[in-house]
Design goal:
homodimer, about 350 residues, alpha+beta, 60s Ribosomal Protein L30, Chain: A, Phosphoribosyl-aminoimidazole Synthetase, Chain A, domain 2, 2 domains, six-stranded mixed beta sheet, four-stranded mixed beta sheet, 11 helices, 11 strands, globular
């Protein structure tokens, strides 16, 4: 769990752990600036009584008659975020990629633990990191329960394990989609992949050189996902199957279909795009494959039975989450087909996008 | 959660995640050797029905009327294990340092999730890693529930979040020790610190150059902790306060006392030592400070009321765990005092050991 450093420093890799306990009194070499810094920045996030104010070795998570949904996702510098990304957006992405999993499973956030691997213990980095993490923890009702901070000579890495609650037996699985179900996605697809290309100075950056607002929006979609936790209840109430889209719509849909032992047909023109993505596509600056194979969308992909779709759409509207019906589940085990406006199948050479 | 790689490789850092799902059928570039390898090695560990065979995005943890104890600890190459340590011992240490926390909190293991950050996806490393992890998961009744595998150019890092169950309100805290309680530790203290010194070719290595068996034993104590989960019930039944000794007995006792707002007096000659450690101490090859400030003991430190000590000791004997009464909780908030055989206080310049 979050640990105080004893007397040594992360920089020197002398103490490997920062355990977040109460400040020791009268203890030689026991108090340190790091200790109080960690306590100061992270303890305010530990608002759940089960976190014991981060002064113990473990936290308590109450079942409260529900089942606990557990998910874990790590983000690594240079892979899931860029070395010059701000600690604010890194913190938010670390938590939100996990919140997105909880949302897709129909779970209500209950808390999280984190492991922080840092090269140096830098107040100027930790303060905004913890502040942003705390803001998102509050925003999504997902308090910090504990964690561990370790030193590393390698890239910064943040591993989060997040917990949610669902009524017994109600977690929405990947399996369960049935022929005739609508394939539905939230938000817009492809923005984050375009944003990453911009941040890396790729073709999209060139194509949008004159449109700073669009570039900023797309980069923001890569840096800070918008997990659809507001839709969790509707997903639980209506979806036969669901998962979040993190590795690209085409690849993730293939996984959902495989788990459900079904196939699907997707109407490409129904895939929801941001104005910026739509314009890039219309101009031919990017192909549809970049959109549907791009990663980091963190939208919900789900299969909704036709009879429940109207109610699902109403619930989504009330929740303030845009949902789009993009295709239909069909029988079979072939890879989902993506059809263009003329009904022609688009051959996708890859289903998931490669970041590097 | 444990992820298949899509079509790219960890080596190339193309796909950052290996999600462990069912193998996709007929999907271009979706199956890979890595996918089947991860599934082959880790799925057998996912024996809990809540793990869904690692084919979903999240796992389910049942409360079953208990409270869920959550703890997380990461181990980093070059810090908590050495670059040439075998994947077998690395796997065991990663899980056991967390099991040790559960034991000290009086919790029965319920499962764990792991994040693996690897430089390369190396079958020759992953196979024995997963095999040892699975053996320990079985041995301690703590099945794999899910995880995430990411690529890193930096040191190998394994972050585990482990779950245990306790009856409501029964988690044993750091706080709660009362004046008059006995201070009790399990096993022997200091061996792991001596073992690390041996592995680093330090003074202990020289002192034990003629005693390969002792060197091996001490190194083994550093590499593979022996968490005292067999004692969890007795700790829950009898201890006023408990924690595991991971950062050195002196420092961890100071933390327990601080959390309990008490102090303690320790009788140094009562501190349980292995024969090897006792001999090194008697020969003057190491000082008592190395023993009581060394890290990585992963023994339980607890405060047992005098009236309950006989019953606790009996329960420990039945559990096959050696316990030693090493001192007494006293009123006050000063740092615990360590007294030698002549009743003189030993001044400790440091309470926790520095690995590096």
């Amino acid at each position: 769990m979050l640990k105080h450093p004893g007397h040594a420093s992360l920089e020197a890799r002398k103490r490997s752990h920062l355990r977040m306990t109460g400040r020791e009194r009268n203890a030689p070499n026991m108090s340190s600036g790091e200790d109080s810094l960690i306590a100061r920045y992270f303890r305010p996030l530990a608002t759940d009584p089960g976190a014991f104010g981060l002064v113990d070795d473990a936290a308590i998570l109450q079942g409260r008659g529900d089942e606990i949904v557990v998910t874990t996702d790590a983000i690594v510098e240079g892979v899931h975020f860029l070395p010059d990304d701000s600690p604010d957006t890194i913190a938010r992405k670390a938590l939100r990629v996990n919140l997105s999993d909880l949302a897709a499973k129909g779970a209500v956030p209950a808390g999280f633990v984190l492991t922080l691997a840092l090269r140096t213990q830098d107040d100027g980095w930790l303060a905004p990191f913890a502040r942003a993490l705390g803001e998102d923890a509050g925003l999504f009702g997902c308090p910090l329960l504990g964690g561990d901070t370790v030193s590393t000579p390698g890239p910064v890495m943040i591993s989060v394990t997040a917990f949610g609650r669902v009524p017994p037996g109600k977690m929405v699985r990947r399996s369960g989609a049935k022929p005739g179900d609508r394939i539905v996605v939230t938000g817009t697809i492809g923005d984050a992949a375009l944003g990453l290309d911009i941040l890396k100075g790729g073709a999209v950056a060139t194509a949008l050189a004159q449109d700073a607002a669009a570039s900023r929006m797309l980069a923001g979609r890569y840096r800070v996902p918008q997990p659809r936790n507001a839709l969790a209840q509707a997903v639980r109430d209506h979806a036969h199957a669901a998962m979040d889209v993190s590795d690209g719509l085409a690849g993730d849909l293939a996984k959902l279909c495989a788990a459900s032992q079904v196939s699907a047909v997707i109407d490409i023109k129904s895939i929801p795009l941001s104005a910026a993505a739509a314009e890039l596509l219309a101009r031919g600056a990017v192909g549809i494959e970049t959109i549907v194979s791009g990663g980091d969308d963190y939208e919900i992909l789900c299969a909704i039975p036709e009879a429940g779709f109207a109610a699902f759409a109403r619930a989504a509207e009330l929740a303030g989450v845009a949902v789009s019906s993009i295709g239909t589940v069909i029988a079979g085990t072939s890879v989902p087909r993506f059809l263009d406006a003329q009904g022609r199948e688009i051959a996708l050479t890859r289903l998931s996008y490669s970041h590097f």
